[in-house]
Queue: 4 jobs
Job 1
Amino acid sequence: TDNNGKLLRNDKGNIVYIGDEENNKYLKVSSLLDDKNESGKLFGATGGFQAIKGTMFGLEYKPGSFLDKLTETYAGQHDLVGGQLFFYDKYGNGKQGLSAKQEQYIDYFSIGAVGVVTPTTIPHTLPIEVMNLLFGVK
C-alpha cells in the first residue's frame, strides 16, 4: 500500500499481492485466507467468500448444489438492494474506513434485503410449468 493506505497497481493497472515478506508470513493469498483471524470478515454468513468456496452459515457447498443455486438466485438482486447502491466503492468493493456502528447497520440492511428481494427471486427457482400455473405465463 502507499502512504495513504491505498493499494498500489502495477504498470498494467493490476493489484499484485506480495504478502508480508518482512515476517515471512502470508506469502500466498491462500495462506492469508486460511487464517480466519485475519480474513474472517471476508466470509459472509450467506454465500461465504465466493472467490474461494461458497458457504451458507458455515456449511461449505459445491458448485451446482442446492445451496449454490439458492445463493445464486438471490445474488444479483440482493447485492443491488443489500448494499451495492450505497455501501460499495466504484470498483465494486465494500467501502473502507467505516465505523463499527456503520458496519453493523450495513449487516442489518443486508439481512433485511433478503426479505425484500424474496418475492422477485422465488419465481426464478420454480420450474416453468409451475410459473405457468401460478402466474399464467405462457
Job 2
Amino acid sequence: MLKERFKGVIADRRGVGVLFMGAVMLLFIYMLLGYSLYVSQLLLARGALLKATLAAAKAGAYQVDVNVAQHGGKNMDRRAVERAAEEAFAGNLPPVLQRRAGIKNVTVNPRLVKVRAKCSVDIMTPLGPRRDSFETECRAVPRSIRRG
C-alpha cells in the first residue's frame, strides 16, 4: 500500500531531488536571514558603544574647560576628567551593554581628551551564540582650545 501511494516518487527520482533542493534552499534562506540579523545587531551594538564613547569624550573635554576656567590650566585634575568621562559613558550606554562594556583608558592633556572603550556582546546566529568584541576611540577638543 505504501509503495502504491508513493509510486510516482519512487519510480521517478526527480521528486526526491526536488524535495532535497527545496530543503537546501530553505536552509540557505534561513542562514542568510539569520546572519543578516546578526550583522544588524552587531552594528547596533557598535553604534551604541560609539555614541557612549563620544559622550564620554565630550564630558571629559567639558571638565577640562571647567578646570581651565578655575585654575587657568595649571594643576589639571586628571581624575576629575576621568570620573566625568566614566559617568557620561555609563549614562549613555544601553542596559544590554552595561555589564560587558567599559572604558579602557582615558588620555587627558590640555589640548585633547581621548577615550578608548571596549565591549563584548553575545549575539545569536543560526549556528548558535557567538561572542564578538570590539573597541572604539573618540577624541574631543576642549572649547578653550578651539577658541584660540
Job 3
Amino acid sequence: MEHHTTYLGQLRLDPPLAEAELDWLRAFAEWGGGPHGDPFDVPMNPRADLAGRAGQDPWARPADEGRRTGIPAGVRDWAPCDEGCHLVWRPAPFSNDALLALRFLVDHFLGPRALARGRGPAFDAFTFDHRVDGVLAAHRDDTEELFLLRAEDGRFHRETLDPGTRRWSGDGDGGGDAGAPQDADEGEAPWEVGAASEEAPGGEVVGARGATVRELVRHRAARGPRGRGP
C-alpha cells in the first residue's frame, strides 16, 4: 500500500557544504538514481544524465528501484539548501522513507566514514567532515501517525508521538527499523511532547503555517478517531 509522509523542519550541516559538494549533491537529488547496480556508479554530472532521460516521469518509482540501484528512492526528496547549511525536504508524491534516504546520504557522502571517499574524481573535492543535526516532525497519511526523526551527529532516532488510529506493518517510514509504527516511551503520554521538542537540536519544529509539533499533536488528539470530529 502506497502512502505519503509530510515532513516539517530541516537538518543542519556543520560545516556547511563546499561549493563543489553543494552543486553535486543538489544535482544528485535531481537525478535520483538510475539503472545501475552500484550506488557509486553515478554520473560525474548527474544533471547531464537527467537531461538524457527527458520525457520520463521524474517521480516514477519502480517497485524494485531500491533493489536495482542500491539507492533508496527517497534520496531525491532530500537536498541541501542554497547555502549548503541544511538538508531540506522537497515535497514529492509518496515520499515515505526519510530514514533510509538520510542514512544513505550521511553514510555515503557526508560523514567522516563516508563510503564515497576515494571512489572517483567526482568526490575529490568532498571533505567528508559534516555533522548532521536537528529534528523533523512527520505525519503519515495512511495511519495519521505523528513522529519525530532526530539527528545527532549523523545518527538518527525515530520517536512516535501519536501512533494514529490504526497500525500498518508495511515498509516505508520504518527506514530499516520495525515496519509497524513504534510506541512512545513507556509511561509517556504521546501528546506530551512540548519539553522534548523544545530541547531537541535546532529547537522546536515549526511548520509552514507556523504550527508547532505540540499544536499538531494536540489537534490530532482532540480530533479523536479518524473520520470523526472532536
Job 4
Amino acid sequence: MGILDFGYAYILRPMAAIAFSFYKVEVIGKENVLRDKGFILAVNHSSYFDGPFIAWVLFPRPVHWIVHKKIYEKWYFRPACIMSRSVPVNGSINIAEKILNQGKIIGIFPQGGICCGDEIIKKGHRGVAVLGCKTGIPIVPCYIEGTFDRTKKVSIAPKVFMPLELRFGKPLYFEKCLTEKVPDDVLEDTLAKIVDGINGLHGKG
C-alpha cells in the first residue's frame, strides 16, 4: 500500500466516518454508479463538505476531484488535495483523461465554485462537457442536498444532525469527438444535458 492509499484509507476515511456519524445520511440511486469502469461524476456544489461526503459514500473507490491549480497550490488545501488524489488543472484535461482511461472516477463540479443553497445549477462551465466529448466516457449526474448551512455566508459544513441526501442519476452517454477541437454547438448541447441531468435530481428525495 502506497502513502496515498494509506492516507486515503486510514486518515481521510476514518475522519469522514466520524464526521458523518453526526448526520442523517440517505443515498438514493447508488445502483447507477458504474462498478466496473471509469466515469465522470458531475455534481452540484454548495459546501466544502461535498467532496468528502461523496468520497465517503463511494469508498473504497477513490474519486479524483478536478481542482483549479490555484486552489491546489494553497498550502492549507494542498495536504487534503494530495491525499484525496485531486487533479490540479489549468485548462488542460490530459491528466484527467489518463485517469479515466485507467478505469477510475473523475469528480467535477460544473458550477466551478460553491453556489449558495440547495438549488438548481443555473450555469455550468464547459470543462465537464469537453472531458465527456473528448473521452466518450459516461457521465453520472449527482445531486447533494443538505450540505449548505443557510446561517453562514460561506458554507463549510452543515449543522450537525441535519439530513443529508446524495442522489445518483442514470449515466449519460455522449459520442466521442474525434476532431482536435470539439465544436461549440456540441459542447453547449452536451453541457445543457449534463446540467439538466443534475437539476433533474433536485427535490427527488
